[in-house]
Amino acid sequence: xxxxxxxxxxxxxxxxxxxxxxxxxxxxxxxxxxxxxxxxxxxxxxxxxxxxxxxxxxxxxxxxxxxxxxxxxxxxxxxxxxxxxxxxxx
Length: 90
Prior knowledge:
Distance between the termini: 92 Å
Low-confidence stretches: none
Largest sheet: none
Shape: elongated
Strand content: under 5%
Region (Disordered): 64-90
Structural class: mainly alpha
Helix content: over 70%
């Protein structure tokens, strides 16, 4: 096989590969793409945080600003629920 035929064959294969890749990208959601790259989920592990880090360690950690906001939101929700209970009693 001479070099022109060989280069045309490689060009043809490359174009077919690009077409197939574009089709897959159009039919693939972000979650699917992430799963294809990173693999399936493993319960109890947190991606990107290194070996041995669990979700409870991450969720348990919070700054004072975010914890006060959470506390404020909880109080607000509690007040709404109490007013709803009072209206249901009446």
